[in-house]
Design goal:
Number of helices: 22
Number of strands: 10
Strand order of the largest sheet: 6-7-8-3-9-10
Shape: elongated
Membrane topology: Multi-pass membrane protein
Structural class: alpha/beta
Largest sheet: 6 strands, mixed
CATH superfamily of the largest domain: ABC transporter type 1, transmembrane domain
CATH architecture of the largest domain: Up-down Bundle
CATH class of the largest domain: Mainly Alpha
Distance between the termini: 64 Å
InterPro entries: AAA+_ATPase, ABC1_TM_dom, ABC1_TM_sf, ABC_transporter-like_ATP-bd, ABC_transporter-like_CS, P-loop_NTPase, Type_1_exporter
Bound molecules: adenosine-5'-triphosphate
Radius of gyration: 36 Å
Keywords: ATP-binding, Cell membrane, Membrane, Nucleotide-binding, Transmembrane, Transmembrane helix, Transport
Protein name: Xenobiotic ABC transporter ATPase
Number of domains: 2
Pfam family, one: ABC_membrane
Length: 579
């Protein structure tokens, strides 16, 4: 997958990459012609007693070389480094698309912060590797090889050997210090991660921190982390500060050797003064590529590690997918469960055990039970957020896995316990960014869920911005907006998973009444802790530790005098006490 993502991109841009590398080769090579022309100009000037006329052709060549280097460099930078940016965008889109195909079980094992880091830091490291670092290496290799070639072939082998003798030592020293820099840099990054995590945690949990007067402790903890980060940066500077002067020192030695032996060779007439000038020109040309070796190696190492991490995610196979011949029809809402047993990955005990029930189209099922009984799990399985064994959940007589996910989820709408509000308008939050619904439909869904009045009191009505930078909805308003979000899609099955817990009993009764009227002929599943929300259901099941303990209608369950009866009497006493 890693290779295929990169390969696919490189293949799609092979022409611009080929042209980019050709221009880069041309620019780097032409650049190394400059010292030679400069040297021969010096010789010509010396021969002609420093007259300008004989060197005019050379001057023209130098201008042409500079111009060609400018044009080719401009072209290759645009192509190679520009393609790096396109690669970054390509991988980001691939990753995002892939993340949306993965099921909740994937997300329950990964930290959100890590996933965000992959999407930002890792992709950027891959871009640096296949953009600027690749370009710098290729450019540097061509410049170094041709410069060294000219030093040996066009000037003098002995002089070149002597002058370049310290070079391997410089490179070895650079790689040695580079490794040290890298390990200290890793510590800086870890410290940076801790500091950002702390900031993020404090901002998200600001209400809890204030409510428990934890500001002072948190400031102290943050101070310690921040000082740790500063110290690790100082440790990094201690080694990184040594690198540039050491390299400069190494090259100064090269220049001294060149000056010492080169000038003697000029005096002895073994090389011309022009050759000597050209030689020093070549020596200057290789300084910058050699200096960047350490940086390039680090970028490559980081890029490959990042690519590995991205590959780990990209190679996770989505476990919930359409079967090859998936039914592309919206089911109508006849539900059956046959001995349904389900366990979460890694969980010791099953979340649900041997659940059998029949919910014909148009009926309402009530689900009640203590916390952790498996009520939300039942809802999640009906949306196929997790896979179940074939034949355990049937929708309209067909296995749930036979339907395309799109059609199944269009037909079954879940209003979860916690509603996610997007930082957008009320309207966008109801239609979920689909522009197929008219204003009339949006208002009708809002009226049915009893949120229309609240919306009309917002400053811009349906165009009011919600979220951090807009209006913050109360718990009850959020729940009602979530019900409108489900109703506008006119689902065959509506599942309210404790979706009325934040509204008062009177509002709950009015919403349920409104749903009863509007959803005639449609299937409903009402999961609730409050008996008042589901007492009118055609069938009620009492879940406990993943199994059905009792089932029946409100009346028959009361007559049984079991768990349901106990819950009912406890809730009645509670109501009377409050009254
Ligand atoms: N993603 C998950 N991974 C592992 N175990 C889970 C996961 N989600 C829920 N569980 C476990 O499955 C059991 C049933 O959870 P579920 O959320 O279905 O209960 P519930 O009846 O809806 O509870 P509540 O009324 O508190 O919402 C619990 O023991 C819970 O810890």
């Amino acid at each position: 997958m890693k290779d295929s993502v990169l390969l696919r991109f490189f293949k799609s841009r092979k022409l611009s990459y080929a042209a980019g590398f050709a221009f880069m080769f041309a620019a780097s090579f032409i650049q190394t012609l400059f010292p030679k022309v400069l040297g021969s100009s010096v010789d010509l000037m010396k021969e002609s007693g420093f007259a300008l006329r004989p060197v005019m052709t050379n001057v023209l060549w130098m201008v042409l070389i500079a111009l060609a280097v400018f044009v080719f460099t401009f072209l290759w930078r645009n192509m190679i480094i520009g393609n790096g940016r396109n690669l970054e965008c390509y991988i980001r889109e691939e990753l995002f698309r892939h993340l949306l195909t993965l099921s909740p079980s994937f997300y329950s094992t990964r930290k959100t912060g890590d996933l965000i880091a992959h999407a930002i830091n890792d992709i950027s490291a891959v871009r640096m590797t296949f953009g600027p670092a690749t370009a710098m290496s290729f450019n540097g290799i061509v410049i170094c090889l041709s410069s060294i070639y000219f030093m040996f072939a066009a000037v003098d082998v002995r002089l070149a050997l002597l002058t370049l003798a310290p070079l391997p030592l410089i490179v070895a020293l650079m790689l040695f210090i580079g490794r040290k820099i890298q390990s200290r840099f890793r510590i800086v990054q870890d410290q940076f991660g801790l500091v950002t995590d702390k900031v993020q945690e404090n901002i998200s949990g600001i209400r809890v921190i204030k409510a428990y007067a934890q500001e002072r402790t948190e400031i102290e903890k943050f101070g310690a982390l921040s000082r740790g980060m500063a110290q690790s940066n100082v440790n990094l500077i201690k080694v990184s500060a040594a690198l540039p002067p050491l390299i400069e020192f190494g090259f100064a030695v090269c220049f001294v050797i060149s000056l010492f032996y080169g000038s003697r060779m000029v005096l002895r007439g073994e090389i011309s003064i022009g050759d000597f000038v050209a030689f020093n020109g070549y020596l200057s040309l290789i300084v910058s590529p050699i200096v960047s070796i350490g940086r390039v190696v680090t970028i490559f190492q980081r890029g490959m590690a990042s690519l590995g991490r991205l590959y780990d995610i990209l190679s996770v196979k989505p476990d919930i997918m359409d079967s090859p011949h998936a039914l592309r029809v919206r089911p109508e809402g006849d539900i059956e469960m046959r001995h349904l047993t389900f366990s979460y990955e890694g969980a010791g005990v099953p979340g649900l055990t041997d659940i059998s029930l029949r919910l014909p189209q148009g009926r309402t099922l009530g689900v009640i039970g203590p916390t952790g009984a498996g009520k939300s799990t039942l809802a999640a399985l009906l949306l196929r957020l997790y896979n179940t064994a074939p034949g355990q959940i049937l929708v309209d007589g067909r296995d749930i896995g036979d339907y395309s996910l799109e059609h199944l989820r269009e037909s079954i709408a879940l209003v979860p316990q916690d509603t996610f509000v997007f930082a957008s308008t009320v309207k966008d939050n109801i239609v979920l960014f689909k522009d197929t619904y008219g204003d009339g439909e949006i208002e009708a869904a809002s009226r049915l869920s009893l949120i229309a009045d609240s919306i009309s009191r917002f400053p811009d009505g349906y165009d009011t911005l919600l979220g951090d930078r807009g209006v913050n909805l109360s718990g009850g308003q959020k729940q009602r907006m979530a019900i409108a979000r489900a109703l506008i899609r006119d689902p065959a099955v509506l599942i309210l998973d404790d979706a009325l817990s934040a509204v008062d009993a009177v509002t709950e009764g009015r919403i349920l009444e409104s749903l009863r009227r509007a959803r005639k002929g449609r299937t409903n599943i009402i999961i609730s802790h409050r008996i008042s929300a589901l007492m009118e259901a055609d069938e009620i099941i009492v879940l406990d530790k993943g199994a059905i303990r009792e089932r029946g209608t409100h009346e028959t369950l009361l007559q049984k005098g079991g768990m349901y009866y106990d819950l009912y009497t406890a809730q009645q006493e509670d109501v009377q006490r409050k009254a």
